[in-house]
Structures are given as structure tokens and as C-alpha cells.
Write a structure and sequence with these properties.
- With 101 residues, the chain is mainly α.
- The chain has 2 domains: 42 residues, no CATH class; 58 residues, no CATH class.
- The chain contains 4 helices and 4 strands; from the N terminus they run ααααββββ.
- The strands form 2 sheets. Strands 1-4 form a two-stranded antiparallel ribbon. The protein has a two-stranded antiparallel sheet with strand order 2-3.
- A hairpin with a 2-residue loop joins strand 2 and strand 3.
- Helix 3 packs antiparallel against helix 4.
- The longest helix has 17 residues.
- It starts with 17 loop residues before the first helix and ends with a strand.
């Protein structure tokens, strides 16, 4: 489905599904609960906002709505450079790039 999929990605991969992600999350929660530690999970499902969006159609729609070209160019530049990195205590994951870039 996606060409540049990270090994740690659970969704949109053959042989992986929500059950895998739920299992991992449950183990993480249990780990912290067993140690009476605080745990603050945060989840973001950006699939509807990014993965299925046709970037080109989005930019054309902005232009059809008379959004100034300078702002459309800023958005194009911004989306093309999106990355994510997760911090766990003092450790950081590898930087993952926007799949649409």
C-alpha cells in the first residue's frame, strides 16, 4: 500500500491489524500500572486527514477557493517537509517522513 513503511508501523501493513497495536498498548499500560507509575497515552488517527488525501486535489481546492498562491505554496512546502519523532524518556525514535512527500 505504502512504499516507505517503517518496521514499527502497525497499520496499513500485510499481516498487521488493530489487534497487534492493542496488544502492545495493553502491555505498556500493564507495565506502568504494575510499577504504580503515571501513564499518559496520546493517540492520533491522522489517516483521514493525510494518508487518503490527494495532495494535488487539496491544493487545487484551495486555489479554487481563492486562497492566495503564496499561502498555498507555504502549505505545499510545509506538508512536503512533515516528519515525526517519538520521545520516550530520554530516547528518540528514528525520524519518519511524511508518506505523501
Amino acid at each position: 500500500m505504502f512504499q516507505n513503511v517503517n518496521d514499527r508501523q502497525q497499520a496499513f501493513k500485510n499481516g498487521f491489524n488493530c489487534n497487534n497495536a492493542i496488544f502492545v498498548l495493553r502491555n505498556v499500560i500493564d507495565y506502568f500500572n504494575d510499577r504504580e507509575s503515571k501513564f499518559y497515552p496520546a493517540c492520533l488517527d491522522a489517516s483521514k486527514a493525510f494518508y487518503r488525501m490527494d495532495d494535488f486535489k487539496f491544493y487545487l481546492t484551495l486555489m479554487k477557493q481563492c486562497v492566495p498562491v503564496v499561502f498555498v505554496n507555504i502549505i505545499i512546502n510545509w506538508y512536503s517537509k512533515l516528519t515525526i519523532m517519538v520521545k520516550w524518556n530520554t530516547a528518540f525514535t528514528d525520524t519518519l517522513k511524511n508518506a505523501m512527500a
